[in-house]
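Suppose you are handed only these lines of text.
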Amino acid sequence: MLGRVRPAGAVVLIETAFAKVNLALHVRRRRGDGYHDIESLFVFVDSGDVLRAELRDDGVLALSIDGPFAAGLDDGPENLVLRAANSLKLYAWPTPALANTDWGAQFGANLYLTKNLPVASGIGGGSADAAAALRLLNRLWRCGLDDAALCAIGETLGSDIPACVISRTLRVEGRGEALAPLDLPRLAGTPILLINPGIPLGTAPVFKGWDQHDRGTLDSSSLAAIIDSGRNDLEAPARALVPEIGAVLDTLDAQPGVLLSRMSGSGATCFALFRSGADIDAAHQAIRRAYPDWWAMRGTLR
Ligand SMILES: C[C@@](CO)(OP(=O)(O)O)[C@H](O)COP(=O)(O)OP(=O)(O)OC[C@H]1O[C@@H](n2ccc(N)nc2=O)[C@H](O)[C@@H]1O
Ligand SMILES: Nc1ncnc2c1ncn2[C@@H]1O[C@H](COP(=O)(O)OP(=O)(O)O)[C@@H](O)[C@H]1O
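From them, the structure of the protein bound to adenosine-5'-diphosphate can be written out as follows.
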């Protein structure tokens, strides 16, 4: 969502870092470079983290973080928002034209991140934040870069970031950089419920636990094919590390009106797509009552 507000003279641009969900995730091969070739159907929820940026004229990039998952997230240079901002600056202005100029002075910003998504949870919060920073600063600094250039920058920072730059339904291959837009009927507007048992789970150990058995290609020709023959090959290794994922999936499966329930990414967040707004309302309330410690977010697919 793009927006613009004008507090007391300053221009502040806003981007949503849309939550990413893997409707299916097939792991095909462990590669020599330590990554895995995947085939995945990426969709995006209409809400997530929120990033605001205000122009500075001294070249400094500063980040502050608030929101329910701000605690424990470092606002220093390792944060993916600042790594993305610095990469964009270097890409757009690779070298100062002259030594001792104030090169880059106009490319500073105060960045404000509202962290609504749990960290290390399989819904790409950090990747979505980095992608939102690229889209936002591309506008704020008037870089004029197209999506392909922003994806190329994003790819150097994380496998999921190119897809998050686009934030529309995509079939994704390679380690995450090969993107094919998909327009699947009946998908946009579908109600989705995300549930996380409150246990962070790193991506690398889950890939490491994959049994290296190639279970075959992903048929992404229709939602029915994704429901009937799609899988998440990372579910077994994730459940071995976080057994609570089993309880989350059982709970989602048991809700009336579920079209599809599955784990997203490397976990531990699981999702369910629902037939109707009434069905998701009932499920959301029931799960919040029964499991008050679980994180729950409802939205609709973009
Ligand atoms: C599993 C997925 C599915 O969308 O999402 P998340 O669970 O992270 O949300 C992605 O492939 C995660 O992408 P991302 O989180 O950007 O991973 P990166 O930072 O690039 O890599 C972190 C680590 O995960 C492993 N990794 C990642 C991507 C990939 N295709 N193969 C891998 O083996 C590698 O061990 C790598 O060192
Ligand atoms: N802005 C950010 N939001 C979340 N995590 C971040 C951010 N910047 C850096 N990270 C780091 O990236 C790692 C992956 O985070 P995240 O993208 O939330 O995981 P996942 O893709 O599994 O949902 C975390 O361990 C965290 O320390």
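What can we learn from it? The pocket of SUD (ligand 1) is lined by residues 22, 25, 34-36, 38, 40, 122, 124, 127, 158-160, 175-176, 203-204, 207, 265-266 (CB under 6 Å). Residues 2-300 form a domain with the Ribosomal Protein S5; domain 2 fold (CATH 3.30.230.10).
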